[in-house]
Amino acid sequence: MTEFPVLTPALPEIFMALSAITLLMLGVFRGDGDTRLISYLTVGVEVVAAVLVLTGSGVREVTFSNLFVMDSFGAFMKVLVLMGSALSVLVSINYIEREQMKRIEFPVLMLLATLGMMMMVSANDLISLYVGLELQSLALYVLAAFRRDHAKSSEAGLKYFVLGALSSGMLLYGASLVYGFAGTTNFSVLADLFAGHGQQAGHTSIGLIAGLTFVAAGLAFKISAVPFHMWTPDVYEGAPTPVTAFFAVAPKVAAIALFVRLLIEPFGSMVDQWRQIIYFTALASMVLGSFAAIGQTNIKRLMAYSSIGHIGFALVGLAAGTELGVRGVMFYMAIYIFMNIGTFGIILCMRQNGRMVEEITDLAGLSKTHPMLALAMLIFMFSMAGIPPAAGFFAKLFVFQAAIQAHLYSLAILGVLASVVGAFYYLRIIKVMYFDEPVEPLDRNISGEMTLVIAGTSLFTLLFFFFPSPLLNGAAAAAASLFAG
Amino acid sequence: MLSAILGIFAWAVIAPIVARRWPRHAGWVLAIPPAFLTVWFASFVPGIAAGEAVREVTPWIPGLGVNLSFYLDGLSVTFALMICGIGALIVVYSGGYLRGDAMLPRFFLFILAFMGSMLGVVLADNVIALIVFWELTSVTSFLLIGYLHDSPQSRRSALQALLVTSLGGLIMMAGLILLGIVGGGFELSELADRGGFLREHPYYTAILFLILAGAFTKSAQFPFHFWLPNAMDAPTPVSAYLHSATMVKAGIYLMARLAPTLGGTEAWTLTLVTVGSITAVLGAVLAVRQTDLKRILAYTTITALGQLTMLIGIGGTYALETFTVYLLAHACYKGALFMGVGAVDHETGTRQVGELGGLLRLMPVTAAAIGLAALSNAGLPPFLGFIGKEFMYSSTLGLAEDGGMPALGWVVTAAMVVSNALMMVTAGLVFIKPFLGARTETPKAAHEAPIGLWLGPIVLAAAGLGLGVFHGELERLLVAPVAASLAGRPMEVHIYLWGGLTPPLWLSVATVALGIVLYLGWPRVKAGFDGVAAALRYDSDRGWDGFLKGLVKLAAAQTRVIQSGYLRHYVMFTITFTTVAIAATMVAFDALTAPSLMELDAPYTAWALALIVLTATAAAVLATSRLVAILSLGVVGVVIALIFLLYGAPDVAITQFMVETLVVIIVALVLARLPRLTAFARPNRRSALRDAVISIAFGAVVTALMLSVIDLPIPLDLSDFFASRSLTEGFGRNVVNVILVDFRAVDTLGEVLVVTTAGLGAFSLLKARPKRARRESPEDADATSSQQDGKPSVIEQNGDRP
């Protein structure tokens, strides 16, 4: 009889799982009328989970037969995931009431997806990786298609599901190849094994490389990196806006975390082999994200391309494959969450006579009708374009710095050129807001939650450069934990 | 110095309050801190002239070595004096110029914030801090240019200026980071000492051109010069401050600052001298073609910026002296001219050369200011502009005679003569025509401007004269320290008004003569240039529009090709890419092996099974009904289970049987409720062929992969493990049973649970389906459209939840 596992490292996840079950029961008994209550409780659960994560021991611990790992890298990423998720739930509350999608399943599905992401961040085995990924993905498929009576939403859900299944298939195929040639699925064992391989004059079997390629392809789909990005614009446009906001932040952070852990921990000594893959994806994502966004007229589609581009920039840090690079990635994702949630908050405020509008031209003259909203959007757009002193500049700065230090000069320079092109469409939004004449002003009433979220995120983005050290030190410590082992 | 910058920013935040409280005198009150800072910076000058640079460091992001460090030497103190001094005058001037404007409080906020950012640019010693302040100037200037956003022209200009300068800024960022990492430090003052190493570095060229891209866009150098005249749509105080005195000189500042680090190479000299000269001549030619006074000044500013760039490029004692003198001269006279022209516009209601005349009597003070500034602009003695021109000729002649580039030197000298002569023409246009010409009717009855409007111009114009006369002090206090900053070592300099009958003097005389001739023949000169322009049909402005259009087109093309919206295309693309990636990897690792099928060691049962799989797959592909397709796939699944069995994994095989059976049953049940597979779902010949090619390629690549890895040793064999321990540890002889219920008991339990749950779920779905279908399906289409109109959907409200 094996001994009972030590559960403390997984305490936040266990708490969330139990809470999700409880909330679902509560919802079923209370009915859809109490969706608001369930939403608040969901936010509460996520806050408590974040506190549990933060009060963890901070040292590396494994549990569930080494399938689950908790370290400061995981803690950092989990807090980001929880933050992104909690903010998404907050901005969704009024939306789902207005748009007749008030179902108790909505916040609960968000919570379950978040739980899946937490498991992904802590995965220490290809199997737990897959289980976490699927828990997340299945919840997300449903969320994308949550407006069943809306053709675009259903289409979005279906596309996401079919392509997601395809990518999961690839990931599993890759995982089986890795298992076949390494004899284990555990990250720690794999790391030891490859560290030995590395000394044997870099002889690595083609089976492993192919397996790694398939796994990377599956994960690239989840972070919507080029060339597995095709679902993103359609799903972003079709899904209900708060779901899009959620898609844009939490799953990205979790999948990036997983990607980083997988490539740095078990496959760390094979950096020369996987760097080319990441190099290509990063470059292709940055370039495509920048160029394709220019032609968009729908702001949600634009954000889709923007997120593709941002993932490309974050991957630049991963391509470096160094501690500095990982720190850059984490830092980038942290900033990215704030900018994105804030921007989506503003998109959720885009209503004319109670009806949602999504065209960029609908923002015309925002500076006259909603000066504060326009100012917040200005900050986010400057930040996304990477123009100082907004936070986004530092995010880009650190990944490029890491890339240059890893001698990836061409990637850094091409990345900057891509960001130059990308700046074009962000700045165009500012021009529309500040200089174009309003056709029909947006509605004035903005809920308290929304004001809180937009004001908080925009202040963070703007004032970040005064106090960059806490976040940076956190990211540095977390990155170090990944390289310690 | 940090407190000075933060102080200006804080003052900017307070400014709107002050402006609302004392709307009539806001300009005067708000100008106090900049004026005070001017004096404060001036107090450093004697110390710096004695060779003591001031450095101040505040930790910012210590983990990365990013500090808020500031450095005050000759170069930065000169710029700081210009920014604060002219800034104070501009603030006073805007108080008068924009009096009564509802947006005035906001205007003060922006212009003071800009002043703070600009101070940051010239004082920053840390590269990252420099980039931050640099982009802040772009942002604040964008808000200032767009201040009058009623006209579409103004909006377009604001966006164009922002795009060009911030794009340049981002490129520059790459260059500066590269510089910092290659040079091993982010402090500019330290990098200056590593110039020798950096100039030899293989990345030198990349660093140089990336940084120059930022400097050239900011300082409106050819071919990026087009944004500056357009930006003149801004109110006059903005044009005077940003687009002549300060912001456009940020690029010049950066080049000057990096001169000791990156300068002196052939690439540096050639690029800067060529680009600078082209810009200078182009600006002068375009200036003469204008009839709007403000646009004339805009283009002459481009000329001046080009000349400054050229001077930095030449380097050496003369050029560096000239640079400083010319920098100051230009700041004085151009600021005065802009503000003066603004006052004329304000009082008469027009800026067209043809509509103005005889204003000398009506606006004597403004006339005096513009007159003095125009003389300096024309480069006549004893103004500072004259000294600048004399020394410019000395520099270009120096380049021609002993600079190692004789041909370039002579061409540049000729270019300078032409551009300076054209500058004289513009000075005439700005002063002689409006003030001395015949009296004309203007839209508003002209009278002298209030003191707020003429104070700035007259002070700056007088400064131009005073500095020219008292050039000895200027030389000691500013020219020598700036030249030292640029050269990276102390410099012996000497400036003078009268140097004897030297070649530069003769060139000056020639310039003046040419200028007078051109001025007298101005209508014809303008017509001639217009004709040339029409013949060339070149216009950077239109080129820029074309560039933007091209970008949009590219984006649209991308959407057409990759983002078609069809799921099948996405799947196709994904699979194609994976195929190519795997194939490329295999080629790269030289792993393509092609064992002949006969050599494969497989029992005949395996061959039979393989044949069944192939047949079933073909049947699935060719099937015309869904049922046949799913059954064929079921056959594939079952055969795979048999293969598992054949190779000793009975537990996996049993699971596979179970799942496969259930899937076929459930899917078949679901399919029964779907409409028939109709003709439209059949692909046409061409796409069928394309799909076949892609599928076969994918299959082939995976097969090749399998064949190439099949020989590799697999490090474990579970069969033996189970076979040997089945009896000893599991107490059973039937290995399969022992595996299922003992070694993998929990797995089995889980599998059973999952399969049962899936079956139950499918069952309940199927049971619920008919009711829903009856009620919902006819209305589905309507529901979608009504949703888009914003009306609540009926279906959603009385949904089918229990």
Describe the structure.
The complex is a heterodimer of chains A (485) and B (802). Chain A is built from 19 helices and 4 strands. With 485 residues, chain A is mostly helical. Chain A starts with 10 loop residues before the first helix and ends with a helix. The mean pLDDT of chain A is 86. Chain B is mostly helical and 802 residues long. Chain B has helices at residues 2-21, 26-30, 32-42, 45-49, 74-97, 104-123, 127-145, 152-183, 188-191, 195-200, 204-218, 227-231, 236-245, 249-262, 266-289, 293-314, 316-348, 364-378, 384-402, 406-436, 451-469, 471-487, 503-520, 522-536, 540-561, 567-588, 604-622, 626-646, 650-672, 685-709, 718-730, 735-743, 745-776, 780-788, 794-797; strands at residues 54-61, 66-72. Residues 771-802 of chain B have low confidence and may be disordered. At the A-B interface, helix 6, helix 8, helix 9, helix 11 and strand 4 of A face helix 7, helix 8, helix 25, helix 26 and helix 30 of B.
Defining key terms:
heterodimer; A: 485 residues; mainly alpha; two-stranded antiparallel ribbon; 4 strands; 75% helix; B: mainly alpha; 35 helices; disordered C terminus
